[in-house]
Amino acid sequence: MSDPKTVLVTGSAGRVGQAAVQGLLERGHSVRGFDRAPSPGLPEATVADLNDLEALKAALDGVEALVHLAATPDDVEDPVNNLFPPNITGLYHTLELAREAGVQRLVLPSSGQVNWFRNFEGPWPLDETVPVSPKGWYAATKMFLESIGHSYAATHGMSVIIARLGWCPRDEGQVREIADETIYQDVYLSPADAGRFFIGCVEAAPEVRYEILYATSKPVETLRYRLDRAREIAAFEPQEQWPDGTEIIFGRRWTD
């Protein structure tokens, strides 16, 4: 691995956040958390909102890499009040304070939902050159994140990796949804593979300027997303396949 880094994971109490934290800690990095809820197993974590600029500024002090997972993670009712504030305004606060703090690497998680209709239409596997076809307003906020990430790389010289993540389920209901559709199993992302992916993003060469990488576990039937760039840039090789890792969410490994 590269030299250990000081990493801030926002959204560290969420399912993907916990996976990122665990992977980075096991790899030997110094990890801080930032979330509105307490972060399990992470002593150095701030409980605050992205609008608490003083808390966010303090959390970013001395940080070399930022994994910014704090967001509303799907479409919701009343997006003006429940989606746009964390996903747009919160993103603005976080990136500006990260720039001021001299953070070198930004890992900005996007979503396979930016390719929603092409996920079903193909041709597969999709790569980062495929025109986006967002599912809804949540995916639109992730398209904004991808675009402004490019601006920070080009304008401020920061190293930015956009992570188009597969589906890492947050609860039993989502596990059942994935179990019902092979296409969702193909884009499943296990917690352990998510951890491996974020390790690779944090440790990627400093020369990386701006990259869009897909991250899923091994497909069950069809490779939906091309993982070549993730292998090249982040040395990411998925080790698991649906339903590996579902015991973390479901309490036991899912079986049909």
Please provide a written account of the structure:
By secondary structure, the protein is α/β, with parallel strands linked by helices. It has one domain (6-250): NAD(P)-binding Rossmann-like Domain (Rossmann fold). The chain contains 11 helices and 7 strands. Strands 3-2-1-4-5-6-7 form a 7-stranded parallel β-sheet, sandwiched between helices. Helix 4 packs parallel to helix 6. The chain is globular and about 45 Å long. The N and C termini lie far apart (38 Å).
Record keyword descriptors for this entry.
alpha/beta, single chain, 256 residues, 11 helices
Radius of gyration: 17 Å
Number of helices: 11
Question: Any idea what the CATH superfamily is called?
Answer: NAD(P)-binding Rossmann-like Domain
Structural class: alpha/beta
Count structural domains.
1
Instruction: Kindly state the percentage of residues in helix.
Output: 40-55%
Low-confidence stretches: none
Q: Which CATH-level-2 architecture? A: 3-Layer(aba) Sandwich
Largest sheet: 7 strands, parallel
Strand fraction equals 5-15%
The CATH top-level class label: Alpha Beta
From the spread of the alpha carbons, the general shape counts as globular
Layout: helices, strands, pairs:
Layout: E1 6-10, H1 15-27, E2 30-35, E3 45-47, H2 53-60, E4 65-68, H3 79-82, H4 84-101, E5 105-111, H5 116-121, H6 137-156, E6 159-165, H7 172-180, H8 182-186, H9 191-203, E7 210-215, H10 228-234, H11 247-250
Parallel strand pairs: 1-2, 1-4, 2-3, 4-5, 5-6, 6-7
